Amino acid sequence: MLAYVYFSFMQNAQHEIRISVMDSHTAGEPTRVVLAGGPELGAGSMAERRERFRSQFDHYRQALIHEPRGCDALVGALLCPPEDPASAAGVIFFNNAGYLGMCGHGAIGVAATLHVLGRLGPGKFQLETPVGNIQCQQHANGETTISNVASYRYRPAVKVTAPGRGEITGDIAWGGNWFFLVEDHGLTLEIENLPALTEFACGLRQALASQGITGANREEIDHIELTGPSRKAAARNFVLCPGLAYDRSPCGTGTSAKLACLHADGKLKPGEIWRQESIIGSQFSASYEAGDQPGYVRPYITGRAHITSQAEIILQPEDPFRWGITVPDHG
Ligand code: PYC
Does the active-site annotation cover 103? Predict the structure, then answer.
């Protein structure tokens, strides 16, 4: 109770708050890296700090991501001191609906940001996330390769009854977040088809939840990935994110989940290049190494982020929307 009173008081404290951020986009998908002025999460693993962020400082997430200072597609990245001094930083990713495990496009955005700020030179470095450490390599041509957390297909050919569409079959896979990947969806993966893709994927996500279909440890499947052929790459996708925005990029964690499924089906060999195209036509280049356990892969995702702005987010005490415009549950 005392803690609640304290945090409510802090949230409404009548002073101006300034948060220093750098924004970028990776293959079209935006990332906002919090450089200073964000919540102080203290010590512990990134998973523990993410829980502290969620339970005590969620108003910061809302201020940074919701309108009028953010937008639904935006992913935030809070930089934290790492647990392991050998890591470049710890990072917690968040969006309009809550907190992510990992974020591939976001990690590439973090790498580009640290690079332009001169905090990192070219070469390899490690980032700590709530779901494990990832390795990054900044290339001379401006691209970044991330070696993501170990990824795997949890269950193949799972059937779910989708509203108005009957039985749909998809794979459940982990790529740092939980994905339901569907190939046989009958929809055209073109940007003009966005409303139909979004409606179908939203229905599918709700159907998974209501039919009790989850990832391992009963974790919610909060990303839907519809895949299909591409004229320019190995495949194209449409990814619905937890807050119902679509991923403008090919989705780093979604591409990792896809690599795990391709591996499980014997359709892609270790080291072979897989070019994944997004619904807006941007691409990631991907490959994998066999993981430490059978069925697991270590994905490599290469993409490029471009810096779009550096700013100070200002939260004035008298602003009624200082903590963002509250939107109903995205569930
Ligand atoms: O690139 O992993 C990703 C991602 C997840 C949600 C948005 N982008």
Answer: yes
Average pLDDT score over the chain: 95
Q: Give residue ranges with CB within 6 A of ligand 1.
A: 29, 75, 103-105, 241, 247, 249, 251-253
Token pair in block for residue 28: 């079209």
Q: Which of 222, 241, 251 to mutate to test the pocket of ligand 1 (most atoms within 8 A of CB)?
A: 251
Look-up of token digits 């939260």 = 315
Instruction: Specify the pLDDT at position 111.
Output: 97
- Nearest ligand 1 atom to the CA of 103 is 2
More confident residue, 3 or 105: 105
To the nearest 10 degrees (0 to 180), the angle between helices 104-116 and 252-264 is 130
Place of tokens 């409510």: 8
- Tens-place pLDDT, residues 93-133: 999 999 999 999 999 999 999 999 999 988 899 999 999 99
Distance (angstroms) between ligand 1 centre and the Cα of 105 equals 5
Residue 321: pLDDT above 50? yes
* Separation of alpha carbons 170 and 316, rounded Å: 47
Reading the block at residue 280, the tokens are 């807006």
Would residue 241 show up in a list of annotated catalytic residues for this protein? no
Average pLDDT for 182-207: 97
| β-strands 132-138, 143-147 pairing | antiparallel
DSSP assignment of 245-262 equals PBPSS--HHHHHHHHHHH
Q: What number does the ligand 1 atom closest to the CA of 242 have?
A: 6
